[in-house]
Specification:
about 140 residues, about 0% strand, 2 domains, 4 helices, flat, mainly alpha
Length: about 140
């Protein structure tokens, strides 16, 4: 397959995926309408928000394929790196708090609290991974090469 064909296929797949993300937002809204349970509501709100973010990421990828390339130079990143570095430190602290909190709950059968703390820990680790990939851009190395 030629590059142009791959780009067209990828854009097509992402547009289909966006329809699924939209369906997920609608689906979670239906669940939210039917329950007042705080655990179920929070799970549905998390999924709904993630689906909305996924849609926007897919939109960026499609635009980068169809209309305008997205670039990030090491110089651009260097200009704001101190702020990002500060944020990296904040993210590290959130992971520490989540790990400490989970350790305190170990064996306490506090399932709801443990469930959401595990979610938060995974999400904070995801943030750290995203930021670590940015650092590779800063060094001029594409993270997936």
């Amino acid at each position: 397959m030629k590059t142009k064909e791959i780009q067209e296929q990828l854009a097509s797949n992402l547009k289909k995926w966006q329809k699924i993300e939209n369906a997920s937002v609608i689906s979670t809204a239906k669940v939210l309408e039917k329950t007042e349970n705080p655990l179920l509501r929070m799970v549905m709100e998390i999924i709904q928000h993630d689906s909305q973010i996924h849609y926007r990421v897919q939109e960026l990828i499609v635009a980068s394929l169809e209309s305008k390339a997205v670039t990030l130079t090491p110089d651009e990143l260097a200009e704001i790196w101190k702020l990002i570095d500060n944020h990296i430190e904040l993210e590290k602290k959130t992971v520490e708090f989540a790990e400490e909190s989970l350790a305190a709950l170990k064996g306490k059968k506090m399932l709801v609290q443990e469930y959401f703390l595990n979610y938060l820990l995974e999400d904070e680790n995801k943030h750290n991974k995203l930021l670590a990939s940015l650092e590779k851009f800063k060094k001029g190395i594409y993270p997936y090469a």
